Structure prediction request, 114 residues.
Amino acid sequence: MSDIEIRDDRPGGRLEAFAGDDVVGHIEYFVLEAPARALVPVHTIVEPEHEGQGIAGSLARELYAIAAREGVVVAPLCPYVVKWAARHPEEAPAADPHLLDAAAEWLKAHPGRF
Prediction:
């Protein structure tokens, strides 16, 4: 994975990986406010021609790094991020199950968001 830049589009709810001016992958997420503030990834997508280059893992790693810098947790609903976190427990602390339940409820209450 060379020359990939990751940018956080917080208002758009996307953490994006760029190759030059092109978005080659992204994580769609929302910010949960209660019962605690958390970043909640919902989908990870990498453009087919860029798969297998470590982009999805770099996006997941950066999402956890952003959360750590902000002093919040990640409550992953995205299957890819869940698997990545299980493989990288030193970088991806487990979220409280109640927080995961609250994130899932928020997502159900906002069906058109993702």
Notes: The radius of gyration is 14 Å.
